[in-house]
């Protein structure tokens, strides 16, 4: 492993200054991706900037509207144990509680999971379904980006040199709405998604689908939204017929590769089945069944 210096800034301003000082810098949150990559020589840096002591990146706050702001370096276990997350954002628990095991969840962050930009990362489709946005700070100031626009390719994201992902904002869910995330892995736990689906459903006063989002993981170079699935759901009764149409749209939108974890045909099939089941589970959540 190439030798590097370690810095532990105590403020966002200090972290930004370190990131723009001209050295080849990388950020460290939980280290569950970056330490492995440095050790294997897949990445190199002269300066590793530890973000775990920057207050904006290490806290969870709930705004007056019920919106959630999760610091990018907050460990996953702290997120899924948070009482407001458990009560109001169970789809975040769906995703955060299946990333690795307890040891990984006690270190790894949502910010790191997003920045690492694996097409199979579990937090991405869940946050897309929830309509999350990202607060990004850099040398030119702050900007906000919808999470869906963050992924630019496998292992690549929209951060510019010197920029830091500060936090993830999740808007409050309106009444009669819910989100759900799940994945397929060939064993019960500790594996990377062969395919995954995150969905959001909102019903109007007549019980018809007023809004919907369907996001897929591990079936394209980046996590993807399926606009045709949304179109297949809007204005319809929530149930088997509408969900089957959305599942078919998900299957058609999937552009997977064959690899050691799954074939193209299996992943397309999974995109359909996982989407139908995620919609069924979101509907159960709206109806208070889980
Ligand atoms: C045994 C094991 C099992 C795993 N299982 C799963 C799984 O089931 N599902 C899954 O999705 N993932 C899984 N992972 C990967 C998962 O742990 C990581 O993706 C994790 O979420 C990354 O978070 P981190 O805080 O550890 O990031 P780090 O490793 O610290 O950083 C990851 C990358 O993001 C950059 N970065 C981090 N924070 C910021 C920031 N705030 N701003 C800018 N750049 C930043 C770093 O420089 C680095 O490039 C597993 C990993 C291991 C080791």
TrEMBL record:
Cited Pfam families: CO_deh_flav_C, FAD_binding_5
Q: Does the record bear Oxidoreductase in its keywords?
A: yes
Q: Where is the FAD-binding PCMH-type domain?
A: 1-175
One of the entry's Gene Ontology molecular-function terms is: FAD binding
Q: Which SMART domains has this protein been placed in?
A: CO_deh_flav_C (SM01092)
Q: Which UniProt keywords apply?
A: Oxidoreductase
**InterPro entries, from UniProt?**
CO_DH_flav_C, CO_DH_flav_C_dom_sf, Diverse_Substr_Oxidored, FAD-bd_PCMH, FAD-bd_PCMH-like_sf, FAD-bd_PCMH_sub1, FAD-bd_PCMH_sub2, Mopterin_DH_FAD-bd
Q: Which residues form the signal peptide?
A: none
User: Would you tell me the protein name for this molecule?
Assistant: Carbon-monoxide dehydrogenase medium subunit
């Amino acid at each position: 492993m190439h030798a590097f210096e370690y810095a532990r800034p105590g403020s966002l301003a200090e972290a930004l200054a370190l990131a723009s000082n001209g050295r080849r810098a990388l950020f460290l949150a939980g280290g569950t991706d970056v330490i492995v990559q440095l050790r294997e020589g897949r990445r190199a840096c002269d300066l590793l900037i530890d973000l775990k002591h920057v207050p904006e990146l290490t806290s969870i706050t709930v705004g007056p509207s019920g919106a959630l702001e999760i610091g990018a370096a907050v460990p996953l276990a702290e997120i899924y144990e948070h009482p407001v997350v458990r009560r109001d954002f169970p789809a975040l628990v769906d995703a955060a509680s299946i990333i690795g095991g307890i040891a990984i969840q006690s270190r790894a962050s949502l910010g790191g999971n997003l920045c690492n930009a694996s097409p199979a990362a579990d937090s991405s489709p869940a946050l897309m379904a929830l309509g999350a946005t990202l607060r990004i700070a850099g040398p030119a100031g702050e900007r906000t980006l919808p999470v869906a626009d963050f992924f630019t390719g496998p292992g690549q994201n929209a951060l510019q040199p010197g920029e830091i992902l500060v936090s993830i904002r999740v808007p409050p869910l309106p009444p009669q709405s819910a989100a759900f995330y799940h994945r397929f892995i060939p064993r019960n736990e500790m594996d990377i998604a062969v395919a995954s689906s995150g969905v959001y459903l909102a019903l109007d006063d007549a019980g018809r689908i007023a809004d919907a989002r369907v996001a897929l993981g591990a079936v394209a170079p980046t996590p993807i939204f399926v606009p045709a699935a949304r179109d297949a759901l809007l204005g319809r009764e929530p149930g088997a017929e509408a969900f089957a149409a959305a599942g078919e749209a998900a299957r058609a939108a999937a552009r997977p590769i064959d690899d050691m974890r799954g074939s193209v045909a299996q992943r397309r099939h999974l995109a359909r089945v996982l989407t139908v089941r995620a919609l069924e589970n979101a509907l159960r959540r709206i109806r208070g069944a889980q």
